Amino acid sequence: MINKVLPPLALVGALAFVPVATSSLAAADVTNYQELEKFMSVYERVKATYVEPVDDKVLINGAINGMLAALDPHSSYVEQSDYDTLKTTTDGDYGGLGVNFTIEDGAIKVITPTEDTPAWRAGIKAGDYITKINGELVYDVTLDEAAEKMRGPAGSPIKLTVVRAGRDKPFDVTIVRERIALRPVKWEIKDGVGYIDVNSFSGNSGEAVEAALTAIDKASSGKLLGYVLDMRGNPGGLVDEAVKISDAFLERGEVVSQRGREKGDIERYYARPGDMAHGLPVIVLVDVGSASAAEIVAGALQDQRRALVMGERTFGKGSVQTVVQTGPRAALRLTTARYYTPSGRSVQAGGIDPDIVVPQLSDPDYKDRPRVREADLRRHLLSQANADDKLLQEDDPTKDPRFSASAEELKAKGIKDFQLDYAVKTLKRLAGRGTAVAAAASPKGKSR
């Protein structure tokens, strides 16, 4: 999710909107008038003859939601509790289970659980279907209705019935809801490698990454082999935070550009001088749950030859949502632009292709678990640049002899996270040969 938050509309602005709208309608062609007349005809008929009296607010909100539903999966109108959830999510403090999901053929399908949340700790995985909530069948519901069913007071339990590919039968998972105050960034030093885990792009993520880089540099006394920037399962967030995090690893150059529907509607973001990683090798870990702002960072560091991107092809959400507050507790979230990496790539519906595809072999469900990406969502925006078919085909890295171990074999060796283990060992090998990641990330060094 990429969000740009705009202030509430001032009263004078609302008043000024009336003649502008009237002028626009006066210039509309006959077809537009006919469509508006059709809408008013239906509205009046419903008001006059529906079996029960209908409140104007219900009808208008239904019309707004229907209009936005015809656009793309990320445009929406929220009021009251939904608005509070939107606001606190971008601030990094919200209540619930910590799971990102979509509706597919009427069913709730998990995109990714957020790290260190109740859903993540309960073992909910990307590709899971939630078919029942507290024993009640949940089908043919909207996103808002599904979210409402999963909400509840912190400390209260909820039972989810889950269908997972590779399992013969559905199984139940009981989760205790929490007030989730995300720690967007965690860090540690693993075998001489600085490890930074970024699980969201909330309002303080950029500062937290900068603080982590400073702390790692101090704790290692300058004796560091490189960095692993882990953005697996990161659903995105604020574009400004993505720029800050990219900037922390870059000395110069473009980070990302946003392009609206007009040719001249382009906004570019650049890195400022000062690489806080001091030029040390960087590996970026991504997977199918890495989306939006996470893809901005991965794309920027990959295009600038600053990092080696490792893992799976990312989600592919390359659009920007502008959030306009339309009332005290109401907001319009509207897709207003696509974003592009420094080389001009649009990752919309295509994703970021890793330099080295590394499967998560330590996950026993890895092979059977379905992947949900932007291209799987109904009404998703297409990339303005035609995506290469090869980009949308998932290579099978398990044919590589390096990736032949089973989850049981890895567990016996004490390897709980194969992708992270492989990234750390790769940095150690590169450091041993004195090889820069920039060279390894060049086209000649790409491994498929």
Automatic annotation (TrEMBL):
Q: Does the keyword Signal apply?
A: yes
Q: Does the keyword Hydrolase apply?
A: yes
| Entry-linked CDD domains | cpPDZ_CPP-like, Peptidase_S41_CPP
What ranges does the record list as Basic and acidic residues composition bias?
Answer: 387-406
Instruction: Fetch the PROSITE patterns from UniProt.
Output: PDZ
Q: What is any one of the record's Gene Ontology cellular component terms? A: outer membrane-bounded periplasmic space
One GO biological process this protein is involved in is: signal transduction
Q: Where is the signal peptide?
A: 1-26
- In this chain the PDZ domain maps to 83-151
Membrane-crossing ranges are: none
Name the source's superkingdom.
Answer: Bacteria
Q: What InterPro entries does this protein map onto?
A: ClpP/crotonase-like_dom_sf, CtpA/B_N, PDZ, PDZ_6, PDZ_sf, Peptidase_S41A, Tail-specific_protease
List GO molecular-function terms, semicolon-separated: endopeptidase activity; serine-type peptidase activity
Keyword set for this entry? Hydrolase, Protease, Serine protease, Signal
The UniProt annotation puts the region (Disordered) at: 384-406
What NCBIfam families would the database entry show?
prc (TIGR00225)
User: Which family, according to UniProt?
Assistant: Belongs to the peptidase S41A family.
Can you say what this protein is called? Answer: S41 family peptidase
Q: Which organism is it from?
A: Sphingomonas sinipercae
